[in-house]
Structure formats: structure tokens, C-alpha cells
Request: fold
Amino acid sequence: MSTKNIFSLLFIVLTAFYGYATEPDKNITIKGTVIDAETKAPLEFATVSIRNHDDQKVIDGVITDASGAFKMRVAQGIYDIKVEYISYKSITFEDRTINENTDLGVIALALNVESLNAVEIVAERTTVEIKLDKKIYNIGKDLTTAGGTVSDALNNVPSVAVDIEGNISLRGNGNVKILINGKPSAMAGFGNTNILSQLPAEAIERVEVITSPSARYDAEGTAGILNIILRQKETLGFNGSINLTLGNPDNLGFSSNINYRTEKFNIFSNIGYRYFDAPRTNYNDTRYFERTVNGSTVTPEFERITENERVSRLNRNYNANLGMEYFLSDKTSVTGSLFYRYGEDADLGINTSSRYNGGSMVEQTNRREKQDETGNNYQISLNYITKFDDSGHQLTADFQYETRNENQDNFINEDYVFTDQTYPDPFQNEIIYQTEDRKEYLIQSDYVLPIGEDSRFEAGFRGRYQNEITDYLLEQEDINTGNYVVNEAITNIFDYSENVTAFYSQYGSKFGQFSFLLGLRLENTQLKGNIDSRLTPAELQEAFGYPIDTDFDNNYLGLFPTVNFIYNLSSNEDDPEESVTLGFNRRINRPRGWYISPYPRRSSRTNVFQGNPNLRPAYSSTFDLGYLKRWDELTVTASVYYQHETASFERIQENTGQQTSDGIDIIRTIPVNLSTNKRTGGEFGILYNPAKWIRLNSSFNIFQFETEGSFNNVDYGAKNSSWFTRFSSKVTLPGAIDWQTNAYYSGARQDAQSSQKGVFVMDLAFSKEVLNDKLTISLNARDLFNSRKRRTTTTTAFFTNYEVSQWRQRQVNLSFLYRFNQPQSKRERSGQDEGPEANFDIDG
Reply:
């Protein structure tokens, strides 16, 4: 039995059971057959609904079978019977008196040509809309991300960049808040963007780039907010798509997007599986200097150390998002959804380390690290919305519960390849056991009150309460006995909570061509941590050389004003759309738990990362001036901005004064508040569609940032400029083959201790639709020249380091996307459902 038949049977059984339980007097049969008016072919999965003629209440509904036939049982009465199918004109039998078995006969539905044309126009083009507080990019048909991930799709959005490690930045600033459908979500990985690299790109409907967030949004994220709106089809009936991807390096993915909607409810689902190998490489060349300690010159054990690391990363991920929206009335609905993800990762890294003195290699070792990780994520969401009238007067309420559990085991061993030592000290084998349990609750309510035709008042509450417990256990081999002994200095349990409570209100109005939105948000942030250590505070200070705060509770209360203006320069509908926007907002950057935990975590024997419990949130104020002009075929956007951030934090590297057993200095990385950070920049974008067969899209960003601050009597001030640009073209070749090229270049940049070279990346893709446009076959190559590598030079008072890192190598994918019961032209309809967030926009 096919998937379609299973869903159909399930729906019919549930409908019949419900009808039997609630309407025991349904004893009259209505039947008929639905066909295509032109081809006379039966239409499977057409929707037949029956309404009470007086109050238009939906009484029942069924879908047609493979022969186009349907049958339902009703009680006697007067009904309106409606027959619908996607992209066809519906037929309604009005005011029908049903008092005996009725055969409606053959019902022929005609194609809705206007609907097909509208779908084709919207689907092919990537468009941009300007709102008071955001830019909305309706994602068109992007071939280069077919079979790819959400991270891949984001990398094609203007102003957004995704680096080689999957970190997302907005206008060059990495402190960006990620939302899914307007809310924090387990699908965004609790702020860990790695999960976005595991969700299919096909799930995205549009991306909202919010560089001047209104007071309604969480104040987190000094760069701004990226709100990812996932597809949720609204068409009546049963429809969906199935996607299969094969790729090299190993990449096997399957996902399905299935939707069923009646007048009374909407059931939606997205289920996927992915297996992939993401090999990465890393090369380090470190040269050590002599240094002075207490007036004495200290010569390093080795003058140069190179490390060549290759890591194989096998990943298996399962994810499912299931939900249902139930319409209590025409203006009130309740939506519930469940998201679940299970992942298994198996990484194996081999690091060859070569050590030099006097220009000659004196020692070489192989370090082998095997890491196994399993993780469960799930999220339960409930949403209630009631619209008091059609003017926008409404109340929404949301509840969300998320949890994540991860278990990680690391086994590390290192052996000599050769050494000039006569009796070298053997290396200790190490085993690390780590578990993370995280829970998060979100409670939110928003109220919108229109005032007249062009004004609106909003107010709301949001409470987000999260707790994470990390249990870290390090066992090291006793060289003499071969037994493993717990390292009590580093082993610990860190219980960390971040609680944010917020209230906001805002008022917006429109006067002719001028609109404004003024808002104020009050937020209280609590950062609370407790460390359960096996050592006393005195023993901890002796072990690490400085006191460690094992119990802290810090609260920060802040006001966050927002001001947004938009002025439409277009005086009438015949003029090209043209507008100017001006925004101001104050934001916060809260340190995460691993940035605060004072216990050292080792990435290798010679490098440790240590959090800072005294780390304070950073605050920023941003001004943004934007411009848009849109003709029929051309859209131009531009903006300039200035940001001033106080108490900004950066990662600082310094020598711990300790060495490994073979005399290598141990380097500590620690985040600290580094005074002020000033950022000035501008961006320019063009969308050009001169003909149906060609589409061009380009953007350019340039920014300058200046840091002023010192730590431990070392000046870390820096001033640097950088830029990035992207270009995309899509051409339809003879034979209706689509060809798309994406190119991206990120310019060189520099921070307090490091300089990074520019990176160029090109993606290439081809696509063809077959089987009456029901099946799309896509072939793409991401990072065609295998050039996506980060080259960084870091210089301190005691060493200089050159690093070349490639997080993911060139990927080639073949993707098959099959759609059923969707419009027979371009099916992926963008911008149909504005979602709950869009109800709050005041258009320019």
C-alpha cells in the first residue's frame, strides 16, 4: 500500500470514527466521482466538505480515492456541498436538501489558470520586502541548496554569512539571534547553530533579516535577528513532497513534507533522515619565543611544533516535526506541534605532531582521538490565537517546552613515531565522559489593538527559563599500573541557569507616506551557576593558581528602547516603489554557560578553554539607515549602520605557565569583557529579473570595527576593515534545464590577536523537471574549487601560530524531489502564510 493510500485510509477511519461517536443518526449516503474536466482523468485526494447551510458550520469531509470516488454519511438536513482540488476551480452545490441517498454523479473540475500563473511568478523569483523592522527574503527556487541544509540556504541570503565551521554572522557580526517561526526553538539547537546544518533546506519558506528589531522581539543578539519561517502549506486537501539525496563525500538523505487540511483543521509534518561523512582537516604551525619569567629568561623545550590533523565524522540524524492546527471558529485556532531529533556521531581524529629544534625534527607523535556522541532533542509547542475582528485586533498565547540530552565519550591516546630522547616519558591515555541535560520553558503572550485605520498598540510578556547540567569526568592512565584514575581537579558537575523575564509595549502609526513604530522593552536577566567539585575552594586555588567562584548568582535589569521609521517616496501606484527607513535599537549579548564555567576544558594536551564566571553581558546601541527602490524587473536595496557596544567580550590566549610532561607550554583561552567595540558599515544589494529565463542577484557588505581594551596589562586594541560579497545567477537553458551559479568572497580581517586571509567559494547546480513537472532532478557541487579554508595567523608575546582549517570539503549532491497533489506549474509557493509574527508589521 502506498504512502498516499495509508494517509487516506487513516483520515477516512478517523473521520468515520468521529462521526459515529458524535452523530449516531447519520443514515443518509452522499456519493459521487471527481474528474479533470479536460483530460477526464480521476482526481485522487480531492476534498469534499459539507456545511450546514444556515450557519456554514463544517459537518463532515472526505477525500476521493484513486478512482476519484467519494462517499459520506450525513443526517437529514439542508447543506452546502463543496468540492475542491489544488489549482482547480472549486464547485459548490448550494442549498441542497438531503433527505434520501444522493448521487451527485460525475463532478468535472476545471484548471484555475489564473492561480497557476500566480504560483509560477512567485515561485521562480527570490523577492525582498521592506517592513518597519525587517527585510523579508522569500526564498525562490535555489538549486545550489537542493539536498543541502538550512545553513547552506542561509549562506545565500544577503547580509548573512556562514563560515567554514557553521557559525552564522549578520553583517560580519557573529552575535546573531536565531528564531524558528518567530520563537527560540529546539530546531535551532538551543542557540547551537550546528543543528541548522542537519535540517533540510527545502523546509525554508522565507528568511526575515531583522537588523533593527522592534520591542516585541527578545533583546538578545547585538547583530540582530534571523527569523527562519518554515513551510506549512495552507492548501485544502492532501498534498506534500518527498525528497531523496545522494552525495559525495557520503551523504544520504530522505525527507518528506506532508500536509492535510480541511476547513476545520490542518495537519502538517516534516520527517527526515540523514547519514553523512563530513571529513575535516586542520594544520597548525606554531613557533615559540623565549620569554622572561621573574627576571629570568626561559627557553621553550621546542622552538617549533607543527600539527596535521585529519578527522572523519560519521553522522546519523533523525528528525520529525508533527503538528495540527484546529480551528475553533473562523477567528480562533489552537496549534500543537512536536519536534524530535535523534543523532549519533562517530568521529575519529588522527593528529600527527612534529617538533623541531635548530631547524631539524627531533620528535614526532601520533595522537588518536575517538569520540562517540548520542543526543536527543524534543520540543512541545502550543499556540492559541483569537482574532476579535478583521482589523487586526487579536490575542496570542504560546507555551513551549524543550529538552536536550547528550552523551559523549572520548578516548585519547598518543604514541611516539620517533624521538631523540633516550628514555622518553610515555603519554597517558585519557577517557572523557560528558553528559549534558538541558531544559527550557517559554511562556509568551502578545496583544494587538488597532486604533483607527492606521495606528496600532501592542503589549506582551515573555518568560524564558532554561537550566543546563553538565557532568564532566576525566580519567587518566596511571603509567605505572595501567589503571585509570579520576582527575579530581578537572572533574566536576556544573549546574547553570539562564532566566529572562520581559515585558514590552509599542505603538505604531501611519500618516500618508510616513510610518513609525516606537517601543520599549524591560528585561531582567539572571545568570546563576553552581559547581560541584571534588576539591575544596583552597585546593582549587592551589590547582589552578587563582581562586574559582563555584557558586554565583548575577542579575541584570535593562531597558531596551526601539525606534523605527519608514517613508514611502512613491506618491502613486504608477511610480516605482521607493522607501527610506531609519531605525535605532538597544540590544544585549548574554554569555553562554560554557563561556562562564570556570573549569578548564581541553581541546588537546597543550590547549585549554576556560570560562569566566565574572563575564558580564555586553550592551550595544545601533543606528540603521536603509533605502529600497523596486521596478518591475529590478530591486535595489542599500543601508548604512553604526553600532557601539560596551563590555564586549572576546577570547584571549595566554600562557598558563604550566607545561606538559614533555615540556610543551600549555596555552589557555579565556573570554573577557574588552571595554568597547565600534562597528560601522554599509551594504548594497541588487535583484534583477530581466526575463523569465534569467535571474541575477548580488550584494556587497563592507564594515570597519574598532576594539579598545586591555587584560592583564596587555593592550588588545585593534582596528580593522573587512568586506564580503556574493553573486548569484540563474539561467534556463534549452531543454528547460535550469543552471545556477553562486559565488561568495569574504575579505581579509583582523582582531585583537589574529589576522585572517580572504576566502572564495563557488557553488554550481543544474536542475530538470520531468514526469509532468512532478519530479525535479538536481545536481549540484558546493565549494566547487574546494577553496573554503580558513587561514589565520595569531601572534602573542610568546608564540606565533599559522593555521589552515577546512571544516567541510567539496560536496557533490544528486537530489530527487517528488511532489504530489500540488499545483501543476511551479509548486513551491512563497509568502502565502505570513505566520503569527507578520500580523504585527506596519507596512510602509
In short: DSSP finds six helices and 50 strands in the chain.
